[in-house]
Amino acid sequence: MLLRVLALCATAHAQSVTGVWHAAVKLPNGDFAGFQLQLEQRGNAWSGAFLNGPDRERSSSGTFDGRKLRLHFNHWDGVLEADFDGTKFAGVYTRTWRREIRKREFLAQRQPLFAPRQPPALNVSGEWTLEVTDAGKRSIWQAQLTQTGSKLEGTLLAVSGDSGLLSGFVDGRSLRISRFDGIRSTLLAATIGSDGVLTGMMDGTANVRGRRASEMREKPPDATAYTRMKDPRERLRFSFRDVDGRLLAGTDQRFQGKVVLVNIMGSWCPNCHEEIPLLKELWAKFHDKGLEIISLAFEYTGEAERDLRQLRLFQAKYKPPYPILYAGATEDLEKTLPQLENFGAYPTNIYIGRDGKVKLIHAGFDGPSTGTRHVQLKREITELVEELVQAH
After folding, report:
1. 89: closest CA among 183, 173, 157, 24?
2. Which of 107, 139, 180, 196 can pair with 35 through a Cys bridge, CB separation 3.0 to 4.6 Å?
């Protein structure tokens, strides 16, 4: 009888915490980036997922003893630890970031953490051009927004690619959209004045000012002209080892007379994860026609053991048919690939023709949340590779 009662209590307790929670992580300025957390239990195993619209980032393992929740997100080298008081969770999300440990305060409850206080006074749907200034550095971004009533969704686009889908609302003349996926904690909180100018903050640190794209002369950087070869007459030189210690170099016979796509990436880079399906499609379609793909991974820490562990997890998850080489830490790129000028985006793809010369360098990747931009980019890249493999 006692065992039956305990079993019933355990089942009731699991039902009380499984399902979707409204969650947020704290930003440097004290504001919060909101998202949703889904908790599931199967037998004694617990799992969680960060939800951002249809995007779902699942934990690799998890535990919950009725009081403490612990979820591991191995692909991001992160862990969520939170205490449960019977109604809400509070704790910390921790992950490795470059050469330090980054911590974000975390909270979750059943009721929404943020909600509009008044009906929307305008519709912000469409494309916006944003001037983003962070630590004195100015850059031009784009925002794609879709508003339905008070509900707002969108994505932010820098030269490195998109932010993933952000969700939120319009409150009078203000808007708030955010995302957290284990790597990116993103929040755009802004107000639009009667003059149509958007002003606000991004991620709690960057000042944002913008207008509708049709009203702005200045445009974001051209992804195909952002990074260049210092001397376009030279062949790109690289030589690194794969995760098993095998040395591969651009001068190897396997690359001679081939079209080579050199993919500069990192296992920590969400856009690099989103790009993998396209790279695998290109390999399947064009490898037998003369395409080689090779990824050069620049990782956060420069600690070989930790970085190689993350790369092995990346390979196990996606099973790319082409090699991934460990190229060192992110800050090593200018030293190890000195032929590149103005590098600044992960991923960056370098397209090399059969003659060994660089034909195009494309910075960043527009993921599925960008809609037609994603479809168009995939089509353009596929057409480029097909043109290169057909050239003799």
Report:
1. 24
2. 180
